[in-house]
């Protein structure tokens, strides 16, 4: 597969693993994130002809525009957009949560994602491309402390379905990937840097790995052009559902 894939959040977790997976399959990757040193290391590892780094914050639309405008050939012709950059902040119930945390999640997971999608849609339509949006089971199933994070991911899932409707007839494919528990830097970020809490969460849980999700992203992107997976929900075997809660008294 020789296509150009634009992957947001390529400095860690799913995005990093997906970058490696697509390059292994012969693709070029535009790899984005805020941590320039990590993107530089990716370029060193995989080659400047394979990976083009773009350093920008998803919440800064001017920086995003400038970065996209700077893309050299052949990285400018985007065939696949993987909207992966995102985060959860906090696990407190809504009445104790930080409003600042909520705004960062909304600005990154929603506003950043739709801004980038809007910017790249003309190219994606022209090239009959693929859009893969990384949502979450948290956008499908409620859980205590999921409040705004789950809300942002519900937005991502519904936005994806609506994109499919609007892009009807263009040949552009749109898929939402909705992962459950996967061990990345996600929980360290969610807990504002608490590595011990992250280790405790995943200990003996046999969670999914970044590579597990990268493989699904690659699978979706490499389907024959007449097939569209609308949503792909995936969990580790060790994770399932708990029931409703009832408060008495
Ligand atoms: P990581 O924390 O390992 O990676 C997150 C990536 O997003 C990093 O590359 C980070 O780059 C980037 N990112 C975050 N905020 C910004 C920003 N403001 N601007 C630019 N880039 C940003 O987590 P995951 O790999 O697990 O998460 C990837 C996606 O998967 C997220 O959308 C997450 O919500 C989702 N997800 C994760 C699950 C899990 O259990 N791990 C399950 C379901 C969904 P940098 O910090 O360098 O900017
Ligand atoms: C992250 C998955 O289950 O931790 O999106 O909310 S979960």
UniProtKB/TrEMBL annotation:
Q: Which domain of life is it from?
A: Bacteria
Identify the InterPro entries for this entry.
NAD(P)-bd_dom_sf, Sc_DH/Rdtase_CS, SDR_fam
Give an example GO molecular function.
oxidoreductase activity, acting on the CH-OH group of donors, NAD or NADP as acceptor
Cited Gene3D superfamilies: NAD(P)-binding Rossmann-like Domain
The alphabetical list of record keywords is: Oxidoreductase
Which protein family is it in?
Belongs to the short-chain dehydrogenases/reductases (SDR) family.
**Designated name of the protein:** Short-chain dehydrogenase/reductase SDR
Q: Which organism is it from?
A: Pseudoxanthomonas suwonensis (strain 11-1)
């Amino acid at each position: 597969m020789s296509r150009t894939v634009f992957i947001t959040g390529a400095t860690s977790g799913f995005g990093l693993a997906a970058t490696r997976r697509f390059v292994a399959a012969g693709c070029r990757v535009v790899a984005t994130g805020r941590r320039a040193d990590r993107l530089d290391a990716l370029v060193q590892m995989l080659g400047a002809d394979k990976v083009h780094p773009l350093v920008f914050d998803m919440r800064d639309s001017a920086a995003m525009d400038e970065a996209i405008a700077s893309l050299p050939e052949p990285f400018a012709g985007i065939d696949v957009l993987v909207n992966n950059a995102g985060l959860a902040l906090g696990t407190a119930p809504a009445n104790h949560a930080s409003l600042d945390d909520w705004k960062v999640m909304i600005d990154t997971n929603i506003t950043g994602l739709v801004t980038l999608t809007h910017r790249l849609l003309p190219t994606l339509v022209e090239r009959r491309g693929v859009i893969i949006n990384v949502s979450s089971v948290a956008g499908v199933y409620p859980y205590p402390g999921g409040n705004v994070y789950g809300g942002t991911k519900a937005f991502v899932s519904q936005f994806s379905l609506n994109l499919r409707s609007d892009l009807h007839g263009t040949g552009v494919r749109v898929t939402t990937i909705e992962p459950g528990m996967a061990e990345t830097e996600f929980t360290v970020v969610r807990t504002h840097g608490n590595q011990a809490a992250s280790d405790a969460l995943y200990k003996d849980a046999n969670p999914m790995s970044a590579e597990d999700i990268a493989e699904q992203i690659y699978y979706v992107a490499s389907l024959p052009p007449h097939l569209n997976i609308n949503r792909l929900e995936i969990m580790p075997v060790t994770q399932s559902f708990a029931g409703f809660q009832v408060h008495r008294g």
